[in-house]
Structures are given as structure tokens and as C-alpha cells.
Predict the 3D structure of the following.
Amino acid sequence: MSSHSRIPFLDLVTPHVELERELTEVFRRALHNAGFIGGPMVEEFERAFADFCDVRYAVGVSSGTDALRFALAACGVHPGAVVLTAPHTFIATSEAISQVGAIPEFVDIDERSYNMDPKKLGEYLESNCKKNASGQLVSLRSNRPVAAVVPVHLYGQMADMDAIVELAQRFNLIVIEDACQAHGAEYFSPRQNRWLKAGSIGRAAAFSFYPGKNLGACGEAGAATTNGEGIAAKIKMLRDHGQAKKYHHDIEGYNGRIDSIQAGLLHVKLRYLSKWNTLRRERAAEYNRLLSAADAGVTPPYEPSWSKAIYHLYVVRCDNREGLMSHLKNAGIGTGIHYPIPLHLQKAYASMHYRVGDFPVTEKVAGEIVSLPMFPQLTHEEQARVVEEILAFTGQSVARLPS
């Protein structure tokens, strides 16, 4: 192993140490008022996160999975309906669909952005569906009505929402954003001629605050965002056993509340999120500069002109992914794969009878992607060493690395 100090894939210690005083005060506040479930800390965070996302409502819940599940249910996705999403994402996306009794069906991704390809979505709706006697769109694959589409803003990169929303409107589908990796990402909408925040475009959206996210809790947490008052009210009921008020259960719900302490911790961190996102964009730009100038033999991320990514992950592609990861590991550099097995090929979905070759872009990408170290405190020197080791692996001269 190299004599250099180790470069972690993710640093969760430093930001918490830097904010230790503010974060500890949240816990102290909860101890003194015993406000552990609900109450002012939850409400204050919900208002602040709604403002951050440019929406009217944010509802804190126990995880990003619950956020998406509750959003689907609150928006009227019923058991037996089909919900379209991408096969290149974490399984929580499709789990949330299944958990409301719906059926996940997949649309392949764009090879550059790794998000749902609107052209393939259009082809699916035109060729893989038909309209029944009542004019409702029905999937030819499952013979079930198609109700919604869930684009995923993967790695902090926005999906092409105008194109997706236009198709959804034409085919009368609900759009719910999976923004679990996109806190603060933005999309320029030519239709509206303005920048829009992730979580503000669909009928509702889901965010995860898993600790490694750009805005991460010190445990599990999530939130759903929406501009619909009724949708927000329904999500609040679903998270709290279906209660409209205490012991008045209008529907069956779940125990999906956010802990007050987690809401308080997130509220503290939210004040720093824009700064952290800016630092991530700067680190991404530096990686791009080093990799492109040195012709390092890997493909850096693609960011369309209409997207302001917040680089939850910095993902490159390499023909010899396993070799590169092994080399970097031996050099003391952490890496990850997000995600190595597409959803349609997961054992959990074997009953859906998808096969290898059904989504060729996803399958190709899944065999080549590598996530490099990415966090706001990553130094330029550490980035240079990461790229030096990539050059060493690809057999190129480190002298080609720009200063």
C-alpha cells in the first residue's frame, strides 16, 4: 500500500465534529422538553425544507422509502396499478412501488445521464401499452393500468423533467420524483423558462436523509414534498397510523414518523447544505479538469446544460472496473459501485420474468461504473492523488496531470 494517508470514499466524521456544538444543543433541547415525537422541531424543519425546495409543503417521515411509498399512496396510486421507473437505481425505489400494492415496470436509461431516457419512455407508452374501452392506458406486459411514472434524479443529477412531464400529461399519468439523492439539485425548464428545484416538479417527491446523503440525518429519516395541500395532509395521516387527530383513524396508516431529534439535527445541517453542495460542484469540476486534461482512460460524469447537479456521487466509467477498484484499494483510496446489479435482474424480481438484454444501456453501465471519493471536505491534493492512481492503473504518465 502507498505511504500516503488513506482517502475515504466518504467522510461522515468531519462535518459532525465541525457542527458538534450545534448538533449537541438539539439533543439537549429534546432532553429538556421531552419532545421526542412530533412537535416544534419537526414543524420547524418541515417549513425550512419546504422553503429550500420551493414547495408549499414538506412532511418529515422515517425514511426515503416511506417518503416515496406515502407519496405514491397519497397521490392516488392504487394496488394493481403499474408504476414506471428506471432499473438503474437503489431497490428502495421499486420497493416503495411494490409496498403500495403497485407493480414496478422499467424504462431504460440515457447512457450519459444514467437517468430515465424520455425517448424510451415515449416508446414504452406508444408500443408497450394500449388503451382499454374506457380510454385508460394498460401495460401489455402485465395487462394492468398504468398510473404513474417515477423518474429518479440519480447521483444528484436531474432527469429531463420537461420531456417526462409532457409525456405524462399526454397519457394522463402521475409524476412523482424520486429525489432521494438530489437535495438542492436544479433543472432548467424551457417550458417555464426558469430553474426548478428537485422535488418541486412532480405532483409529489421523496427525499432520503440517510446519513451518507448530501443532507443526512444521524440515523434514518426522509421527507415528502408537494404543492398539494390534500396530498400533504394524506401523507401526514399515513405516517401516523391514519390519524386525522389523536385516536381518530380515518384510514389505516403506518408508523412512519420522523423522530424530533433527527428533524432538529437536519434543520441545523440544512443551513449548511447550499455551501456543501457548492463545494461538491467545485470538487466535481476539479475531477473533470484533471481527468479530461490527462486523458485518464475513464469517462467522467455528464452534466447537461439544463441541470445543476449536486454530486451526491461522482461516478466514472471504466472498462476494467474491478481492476481499477482493486488498484485504488491497494493505494488506500475508497470507492463504491452504485449499482452493480440492475433491478430487473435482481432475485427479488425473478417472478417478473425480465431477462438479460431487456435494458441494454442499464446493463452496460452497471458493469462499468465506479464511484470515486466525493464529499465537501475532499482536498485538491487528495483529488490529485486519486487521479494519479487512475493514471498509474491505465499505464499513463503522472507527468500528464495538470497542475
Remarks:
- The chain has twelve helices and 16 strands.
- Residues 341 and 347 are 10 Å apart (CA to CA).
- The first strand starts at residue 57 and ends at 61.
